[in-house]
Design brief:
Distance between the termini of chain B: 47 Å
Radius of gyration of chain B: 24 Å
Number of strands of chain A: 4
Structural class of chain B: mainly alpha
Shape of chain B: globular
Order of helices and strands of chain B: HHHHEEHHHHEEEHEHHHEEHHH
Largest interface: A-B, 72 and 85 residues
Largest sheet of chain A: 2 strands, antiparallel
Strand order of the largest sheet of chain B: 1-2
Distance between the termini of chain A: 55 Å
Helix content of chain A: over 70%
Oligomer: heterodimer
Number of strands of chain B: 8
Number of helices of chain B: 15
Structural class of chain A: mainly alpha
Strand content of chain A: under 5%
Strand order of the largest sheet of chain A: 1-2
Order of helices and strands of chain A: HHHHHHEEHHHHHEEHH
Radius of gyration of chain A: 20 Å
């Protein structure tokens, strides 16, 4: 039997991007929440809760981008120039976010600067990612294997909305993460914040979901035609289940539930976006099979991926296990 | 001269700037990660406290430098798509999987175990902690393996075919990965990274020995670094010579430009210094040693060395730049050998720990590895011009269909952010290096170390530090 390598790789890259979104999502959310934390001590605790894992989380973004280059070079070569400005903004944001972990504890006088760098960098990166996502969903103009649109095509009301939606969504992930990882007054503050953030996230998800099918006939028929309608009904139902888990966790003080509920919401939205534009990888023009490199390339790296991704998941999971539980405020190597 | 208004030139500047800034960090962290693994291993093996003290001192510095390497590296992985999309489309089927392997085998390994290495001593115990340190070190070496394979393929492409849409597609993976220049380049770069780290560690050790001859941690640093310089710097010269011969075989025009030869000679001289002029096709004011060029390059008294004029003008790399960058690299290499020999003599005379002149020289030589690495990369990358894939894909035909204003704006943004962020980072690293390494006297701090904690400046700043240095 001939394996559909392009299909397998589309799944793997979708997984890498999803792993990035939920993992770095809560890191970035913690960064966005930073200015609202009450004391320097709270900020130390929040930072220590992500410091051991953020680098691994961010590596999924490198796999998403690098994987695109490896197996869908045409998608990589058309999406990146099309999203030039938001991607550069994202990179600059990630620079400030990434160095702040170490720089912040290297100085007392300049600490406020790296607090700003951490939260500002996180905010910019999140907003840019949301805008890039919206710009991809609304479509990219491609002719002769190259981007053929203008330099500001990415900027629309829709992409701005997805940008804001992702910022709010990441903040919800960050807040529920801190509910899980902290204690006392800080955990209470994060529980209160989670209520509002959850409500805002749902409103924005609703808006984007209702908007998306009308961007493109493909999306419309995908969601509201024939048997797909069943799935269109299942996704919102599952989403409601996640919201219940989140809310129940907040009410009953089961501190891991809200984070799991928020993760579930993200996974479902992500699947929903995938349903919208599969099998396009650069909507509305390029399918995964058109963008795929030759089978020799896809097979060669697939061998490595099949062996290495489970190992990566094992040791990354182990790292999370080592640092499990509430953050000990006295811990940290700085 | 160059026009600063077209997208291609701006994209080239952006790549040159961001990659030069980036290479500094891996050049340091590849060596430092191995150094940390050796230190922790020696500590577990011998039980001597001085090794773990030196480990903790450099671990903090590693964390700061590694963070800068990560964020500047992410820029590189996206820049190929934003500014060089035609190149990305054409080379993706071959170089994409190689870079993919770098992510899967190296980046995740480093990132996954870095957290354990920095924060996990108390939670996992010394043995597992050592394993984490080892994995970080192995990850940096895997990373070097793959990225140098990619770079070497661009210099000496092999194992490929070209398909109907003009993409390079794999024909023989082993030939593509282990392409003709790869082994030389990998050895040369890894040795360069080890030397870079050795000279930084040696300079920091020497700096503190100048202040306190009896500081045992500083002695350990200095001694280990000087062993490295003594043994590895000469090896590097040999490796560099082999690399040069390989370049002569595959990219003779690059060697001609490095040597400043425009005319083809039998029994070519070695031009020590001179001013190459690509327009007039002559190296002015040349100081030459007859026949030595042929002797070094082809290992024959009257061997023929091709000059730049043997190649079409549009295929020549700019001699004006790489003639000089090559000399800077080689000059620094010989200076490193000199310092290594000096330290060997001092060791023989049993005066290694009382040699202020040697310490001063070591401090001056501290940044030499970075300069040599930069000069070396300029030599090899500018020497690859006007091609991105040597002989097959020109730089002019590699760029994205993009507006100059977009590239220009992002270039300005990168320059501003890099100088601000990495400038601050360099300042913090230098300050960490200026902190006196704990010598092991007054062991009340030992308990903290045993717990896997390292008091850093931020903790100490709230107390008064013994030497009055702090925030």
């Amino acid at each position: 039997m001939e394996l559909d390598l392009a299909f397998i790789w589309a799944g793997l890259i979708a997984f890498a991007v999803l792993a990035y979104v939920v993992l770095d999502g809560f890191d970035l959310g913690v960064g966005i929440l930073f200015p609202f934390l009450r004391s320097n001590r709270d900020r130390d605790i929040a930072m220590n809760s992500v410091a051991p894992v953020w680098d691994g989380n961010e590596t999924w973004l490198v796999l998403g981008g690098g994987g695109l280059f490896a197996v869908f070079p045409l998608a990589y070569a058309t999406i990146l120039p099309a999203l030039y400005a938001p991607l550069i903004a994202m990179l600059l944001g990630l620079i400030f976010r990434g160095v702040s972990f170490e720089f912040r504890s290297r100085t007392v006088r300049g600490r406020f600067l790296w607090d700003i760098g951490f939260s500002g960098g996180s905010l910019i990166a999140a907003l840019a990612q949301g805008i890039a996502l919206g710009a991809l969903v609304q479509g990219i103009d491609v002719q002769n294997r190259a981007y053929a649109g203008g330099w500001w095509d990415w900027l629309t009301l829709f992409s701005l909305t997805t940008g804001v939606a992702l910022v709010i969504g990441y903040t919800l992930l960050g807040a529920t993460w801190l509910v899980m990882k902290t204690e006392g007054e800080m955990a209470r503050q994060m529980r209160r914040a989670s209520w509002g953030l959850c409500a805002a996230t749902l409103v924005l998800i609703g808006a984007v979901s209702l908007w998306t099918p009308f961007l493109n006939d493909l999306y419309l028929s995908r969601w509201f035609k024939g048997p797909n309608l069943i799935f269109s009904a299942v996704v919102p139902l599952l989403l409601a289940g996640c919201v219940v888990l989140l809310v129940a966790g907040l009410r009953k003080g089961r501190d891991a539930w809200p984070f799991l509920g928020a993760l579930g919401i993200f996974v479902l939205c992500y699947i929903g976006i995938g349903i919208s534009f599969y099998p396009m990888i650069v909507p509305p023009n390029i399918t995964i099979w058109q963008a795929a490199g030759p089978d020799e390339s896809l097979a060669f790296i697939l061998v490595g991926a099949v062996v290495l991704i489970p190992i990566i998941l094992a040791y990354s999971g182990y790292a999370y296990w080592i640092f499990r539980g509430k953050v000990d405020p006295e811990e940290g190597y700085h | 001269m160059l026009e600063f208004t077209d997208a291609l030139t701006l994209a080239r500047f952006q790549f040159a700037f961001t990659v030069s800034a980036h290479i500094i960090f891996p050049a340091f962290t590849i060596g430092l990660a191995s150094f940390l693994a050796v230190l922790e291993g020696l500590w577990l093996w011998t039980g001597q406290e001085r090794f773990i003290r030196v480990f903790h001192y450099w671990k903090t510095i590693f964390a700061v430098v590694f963070g800068m390497g990560v964020v500047s590296g992410i820029v590189m992985s996206y820049q190929i798509g934003t500014n060089w999309s035609v190149y990305a489309d054409k080379t993706g089927p071959i170089l994409g999987p190689l870079m993919g392997y770098e992510v899967l085998s190296a980046f995740f390994l480093e990132a996954g175990f870095l957290g354990v290495m920095l924060f996990g001593m108390k939670r996992v115990g010394p043995k597992l902690h050592f394993f984490a340190t080892l994995m970080v070190a192995v990850g940096t070496l895997f990373s070097a393996f793959w990225i140098l394979s990619v770079n070497s393929w661009m210099q000496t492409p092999a194992g490929y075919a070209v398909n109907e849409v003009g993409q390079f597609v794999p024909d023989d993976w082993a030939a593509a990965i282990f392409n003709p220049s790869f082994p030389y380049r990998l050895v040369h770069m890894v040795l360069a990274a080890y030397l870079t780290t050795a000279f930084v560690v040696g300079a920091v050790g020497a700096w503190h020995l100048l202040r306190d001859r009896s500081n045992r941690s500083a002695r350990t640093m200095f001694s280990m670094a000087m062993w490295m310089a003594l043994i590895v710097a000469p090896l590097q010269i040999v490796a560099g010579d082999f690399h040069g011969l390989n370049t002569l075989e595959h990219q003779p025009e690059k060697v001609a430009a490095m040597e400043g030869h425009y005319d083809t000679h039998k029994g070519a001289p070695l031009i020590l210094f001179g001013i190459p002029d690509d327009t007039a096709e002559v190296t002015r004011n040349a100081v030459e040693i007859p026949h030595l060029g042929s002797l070094i390059l082809v290992h024959e008294w009257d061997g023929e060395v091709k000059g730049l004029k043997a190649f079409p003008k549009e295929d020549r790399p700019p001699a004006e730049i790489i003639f000089w960058s090559f000399r800077i690299m080689v000059g620094l290499g010989f200076a490193m050998v000199g310092l290594g020999l000096w330290s060997g003599l001092a060791r023989l005379r049993k005066s290694l720990y009382d040699a202020p002149m040697l310490y001063r020289a070591a401090v001056v030589m501290g940044p030499s590895g970075f300069l040599a690495v930069l000069a070396g990369w300029i030599t090899t990358e500018v020497g690859r011009q006007p091609w991105t894939v040597h002989g097959l894909l020109r730089t002019v035909h590699s760029a994205s269909p993009i507006e100059a204003s977009a590239v220009g704006t992002s270039l300005v943004a990168f320059v501003l952010v890099y100088f601000a962020v990495f400038g601050a980072g360099t300042f913090y690293v230098l300050r960490l290096m200026g902190k006196r390494p704990n010598s092991g006297e007054g062991e009340e701090i030992g308990a903290t170390w045993a717990a896997g904690l390292m008091p850093g400046p931020s903790m100490e700043a709230s107390h008064a530090t013994p030497d009055g240095k702090g925030e």
